[in-house]
Amino acid sequence: MTDHTHADTLRTPIVAVLGHVDHGKTSLLDKIRGSAVSEGEAGAITQHIGATDIPLSTISGMAGELIDPDDFDLPGLLFIDTPGHHSFSTLRARGGALADIAVLVVDVNDGFQPQTEEAIDILRRTGTPFVVAANKVDTTPGWNPQEGEPIQRSMEAQSERAKSMLDENLYEIIGQLSDAGFSADLYWRVQDFQKNIGVVPLSALTGEGVPDLLTVLMGLSQRFMKEEMAIDVAGPGEGTVLEVKDERGFGATIDTVVYDGVIRNGDTIVVGGQNEPIVTEIRALLQPRPLAEIRTEKQFEKVAEVGAAAGVKIAAPDLDKAMAGAPVRVVRDRSVDEVVEEVKAELAEIEVDTADNGVVVKADTLGSLEAMANALREAEVPILRAEVGDIAPRDIAVAETANQDEHKAILGFNVDLLQNAESDLENADVKLFKNEVIYQLVEDYERYVEEKQRAQQETVLDKVVRPARFRILPDHTFRQNDPAVVGVEIISGTLQNNRNVGYFEGNEFERVGGLSGIQKQGEDVDEARSGERVSIAIDGPTVGRGIEEGDTLWTEVPEKHAKILEQELKEEITADEREALQGYLDTRRKRDPFWGK
């Protein structure tokens, strides 16, 4: 055993690769791995669970004259394969992001897409430094591929036309970054990487520009992260769960990225769980057999210990309730209770503020749960309960207890509906929203709420007294009283049957009676619109006493109704109804300025 008493050592920076679904994240990782292998450095590349470690010597071999290995004392780069989801960019390590640095892959022809926006949002929130890989430059019409070359040399080999088409696409991306609040430029023009984002044009297919990407990542890590890369080599290991997986022969295991210290077989560890932190003992530490392609190869080998930074699969009892995104801590020479409290405290940072009413949120990882909570907070949607995991019967039961109809909803991000919950959902008054893109999930829900509110407004509108102003036509008295029947013309608004009507004497409203009928061309109708002429029956007054031909009358709008019309339904009523309402309110308010407010 070597003596680890010397000062802290620098660990490999952890690099996350994010981006929209088909913009080439996986092929870029495969290219970096593949080129490394073809450099004849096969032995140097160690495959990890969920990660690939590329040592400095390999990187400098691939980057050629772009890198002088003597400029670096960091050991290389550890690329983590965020399993299928960009939400992994919110994987955490002690309150910060797990990734030290990120690559945002954008298809140069396609620009920003929903998941790109989302990844940017997460990078902004976690403050993770990043580089943009503008992928697929080889698809530029007329492109002449220069396998594996640095991008500037490759660009010199292109026709003017291809070069200018590529430039146009690159500037489009730089513009989109600027819209998102980041000042960016082609990486060779960036003076200060702390203030500007470098854009690296490349092709995961031909390898052009890949040397540049590695160079920029190494340079950034070396310059800005050296302090953070200092770790306690022999200290108790700390890591973050990437995925919880069942493995034949091992039961539930956790794929973990270790970012500090050492984890040994037999260690007691504390892992964040769905209810309480899990305390368990490591039965096996597993890594893929050398150079086996991680995604297909199931043959692991057991290792005695793993030091940071590394990806490893941990097999131990009781891990089935572990959560993706949760902390993993080795206990070693401290009390278990102390470590359990540490894990609880770290999970509490991620806990979502819940309200007494609101929607139920389920997500696949703690990171995505947190991102969902942030998105809902911005949309001002309250959350009743937020948890990691698939949608279970009790989620439906909880959602049903919401006291507002629009909150009887479950928003599921990247999760499934468990089979035993399907019939519960069918029989419950609960709406389920599922999506793989956070902001689309929130938008779907907001659209649903708007539609619900519009339907509610329509029912309110049916009950509200609508404003109307109308005039009794000269020579149109058909009956003097009991009821008085007269011909009228509606000047503005909607005249409804069974409403009280009256007129203004000065600024004082005088009620004259109630409508008991409206006839249009001899037919009974419920209402008459602005501009129409109808005959109406009014209970109460006598023509010649109380009302006269030529009088202007108004529907009497109760104060509460006037307030609803002015404050909530103004957009829902017609322009002439607004005009009638305004005239009515203005006159009422001459006497009482606060009427209907």
TrEMBL record:
User: Which part of the chain is the Tr-type G domain?
Assistant: 10-226
- Which GO terms fall under molecular function for this chain's record? GTP binding; GTPase activity; translation initiation factor activity
InterPro entries listed in its UniProt record = EFTu-like_2 (IPR004161), EFTU-type (IPR029459), P-loop_NTPase (IPR027417), Small_GTP-bd (IPR005225), T_Tr_GTP-bd_dom (IPR000795), TF_aIF-2_arc (IPR004544), TIF_IF2 (IPR015760), TIF_IF2_dom3 (IPR023115)
* SUPFAM superfamilies listed in its UniProt record: Initiation factor IF2/eIF5b, domain 3 (SSF52156), P-loop containing nucleoside triphosphate hydrolases (SSF52540), Translation proteins (SSF50447)
What's one GO-annotated cellular component?
A: cytoplasm
**Keyword Electron transport set for record:** no
Instruction: Cite the binding residues for GTP.
Output: 19-26, 81-85, 135-138
Q: Which CDD domains match?
A: aeIF5B_II, IF2_aeIF5B_IV, IF2_eIF5B
Q: Which domain of life is it from?
A: Archaea
- A matching Pfam family: IF-2
Keywords (alphabetical) are: GTP-binding, Initiation factor, Nucleotide-binding, Protein biosynthesis
Does the entry feature the keyword ATP-binding, yes or no? Answer: no
Q: Which family does it belong to?
A: Belongs to the TRAFAC class translation factor GTPase superfamily. Classic translation factor GTPase family. IF-2 subfamily.
Q: State what this protein does.
A: Function in general translation initiation by promoting the binding of the formylmethionine-tRNA to ribosomes. Seems to function along with eIF-2.
Which PANTHER family did the record assign? EUKARYOTIC TRANSLATION INITIATION FACTOR 5B (PTHR43381:SF4), TRANSLATION INITIATION FACTOR IF-2-RELATED (PTHR43381)
- Tell me the protein's name: Probable translation initiation factor IF-2
Organism expressing this protein natively: Halorubrum ejinorense
Report the gene name.
infB
